[in-house]
Amino acid sequence: MSLLEKINKNNVPKHVAIIMDGNGRWAKKKGMMRIFGHQNGVKAVRASLEAAVKSGVQNLTLYAFSTENWNRPQAEINALMELLVDTINGETKTLNENGIRLHTIGNIESLPEKCQKKLQEAINNTKQNTKLNLILALSYSSKWEITNAVKNICNDVVSGKLNKDAIEEKTISQYLNTSAFPDPELMIRTSGEYRISNFLLWQLAYSELYFTETLWPDFREDDFFKALIDFQQRERRFGMTSEQITV
After folding, report:
1. Are 76 and 34 in contact (CB under 8 A)?
2. Do 189 and 19 touch, CB atoms closer than 8 A?
3. Which of 6, 36, 99, 194 lies most in the core, judged by the most C-beta atoms within 10 Å?
4. How does pLDDT run across 163-190, given as a tens digit for each residue?
5. For domain 13-190+203-231, which architecture applies?
6. pTM for the full predicted model
7. How far apart are CA 134 and CA 105, in angstroms?
8. To 10 degrees, what angle do helices 34-55 and 74-97 make?
């Protein structure tokens, strides 16, 4: 029996988030520059998309570039931006063939104009697709997102659009970049690191966390399926007892 066949299609997380980590270490092991790892990481993105579609996941968020990544060497940043544009150009047709709709979260305005243009074109060209939402987190950090949400809430309170006494958890969620999507039920991080790294801090409050030693460029469909199977073996109590869950 294949790993895909072992997955209970009635208990698949609606939203999976992935921290794609290990590109640089993968390249270093092969005596290559870091960008070589990023280039090969595109294969893992394709594999994850295919696995998500096959297993019935409806939303997949990939942490592609954090606000902290702007502190990397300029040559690497430039190469990453070029890779982003090339990948978008090359993958839009595949997204449409597989019913995948592209979305972005993060400070997109901080990206080079060429990247912004290509992203918007791909978003427009895939907006009719309904099988899977692919959400790219670009120039994203959760602290940046939450700070912006607080500012916007304050502005709406001052303008009278929002009553401060009516602010609830749901209100805050509505001001986040991910307001159109359910919170992730499963977060996967590759490369053996055990950190969330400023990623979806609010949204991951009740997510199951799955860590694998696999470096991102080596991540394939079966790795994705293993994470789903592990997720399905966990008891999700949300603060309640096991007895309450089984009632």
Report:
1. yes
2. yes
3. 36
4. 999 999 999 999 999 999 999 999 999 9
5. 3-Layer(aba) Sandwich (3.40)
6. 0.94
7. 11
8. 30
